[in-house]
Specification:
This protein is α/β, with parallel strands linked by helices and 341 residues long. 49% of the residues lie in helices and 12% in strands. Mean pLDDT is 92; it is low at 337-341.
Length: 341
């Protein structure tokens, strides 16, 4: 298929959706950037800039904002879904009747459905069985991507041809796209890391030292790995960009909403007050609830996730939970161990 110019749709005009639209358009493709809000769409078309979510970065030539979902996806070879997790199921329902067979449908949303332990790509696959499903995930802070900082991301799909096509359409000099066949593991890592970003924000608010934060991050990775294996993912996926890479940036960057929310709670705000202060509830809150329920069902020990659940949903105080975590049984350093055959 070479480097021919094609139509690509991006659903969701938040900061990451806007960045992806710009990257793809800069490679010469036509990009339909879909959003619900007519007034915001008119402002994007008029100003050629997403002042609300990505100020200071003009829309690339070839990006056309629209509120018409059927028109946006009609004839699109790839469709990137970058809407919030709460909105994704409704969008997926509409897409089921709109997509051509074989369309590449790529989820970039990091989170879980509100009911049960269901990942975003699973919601898309159920609603759009005719599509080729993939996941794009990694340490991808939109503002840094827009500024041209070198960034790595992962396209994950069981279909190697879909991974190759996304790499060809999306990569740029500073945005490097790597592939992985473990779609579930890549997406699971992107959802789980938000749990530990909340914890990291709380630790920062308490003035935790570098040793403490390093312990938190690595024990969080251990929890993620054990849970991922129990769910059937490849533990090596957690060592890549979508796992440890995303975990590192989300647990340390003030640009992370989950880190910000955790910090606000660590400073003494209630969950409701912290969410109101930030303007929205971070994805990690629902992820804590769903993951802890699933961990109990699978009998996977996740003491950090359990502690966060106690703080967010059981009325426990942060100092009390912190002491309980520090005095907990010391388990194996690396529970998912390699054994020589």
């Amino acid at each position: 298929m070479g480097d021919e110019r094609v139509k690509i749709a991006v659903l969701g005009a938040g900061n990451f959706g806007t960045v992806i639209a710009n990257i793809v358009a800069a490679r010469g493709h036509r990009v339909a950037l879909w959003l619900r809000d007519p007034s915001q769409c008119a402002a994007l078309a008029r100003d050629r800039e997403n002042v609300r979510y990505l100020p200071g970065h003009p829309l690339a030539e070839g990006v056309e904002p629209t509120t018409d979902l059927p028109a946006a996806v009609a004839g699109a070879r790839l469709v990137f879904v970058a809407v919030p997790s709460a909105a994704l199921p409704a969008v997926a329902e509409h897409l089921g009747a709109l997509l051509d067979p074989g369309t590449g449908l790529i989820s970039t949303t990091k989170g879980l459905a509100r009911d049960g332990f269901t990942l975003m790509s699973e919601v898309l696959a159920a609603a759009c069985p005719q599509a080729r499903i993939g996941v794009l995930s990694g340490p991808n802070l939109a503002e840094e991507i827009a500024q041209g900082h070198f960034t790595g991301t992962v396209i994950a799909s069981a279909e190697a041809a879909l991974c190759e096509e996304v790499q060809r359409r999306v990569h740029s000099r500073s945005f490097r796209v790597y592939s992985n066949s473990d779609r579930y593991g890549v997406e699971l890592a992107g959802a789980l890391k938000n749990i530990y970003a909340l914890a990291s924000g709380m630790a920062a608010a308490l003035g935790a030292g570098e040793n403490s934060r390093a312990m938190l991050l690595t024990r969080g990775l251990a929890e993620m790995s054990q849970f991922a294996v129990a769910k059937g993912a490849n533990p090596l996926t957690l060592l890549g960009l979508a796992g440890v890479g995303d975990l590192m940036v989300t647990c340390s960057s003030p640009l992370s909403r989950n880190f910000q929310l955790g910090r606000a709670i660590g400073e003494g705000r209630s969950l409701e007050d912290a969410a109101a202060h930030l303007g929205k509830l971070a994805e990690g809150v629902n992820t804590v609830r769903s993951t802890w329920q699933e961990a109990q069902r699978l009998a996977v020990p996740m003491p950090i996730c359990q502690g966060l659940h106690a703080i967010l949903f059981e009325g426990r105080q942060l100092p009390e939970v912190l002491v309980r975590l520090m005095l907990a049984e010391q388990r194996d350093d690396v529970a998912v161990a390699w054994r020589q055959p």
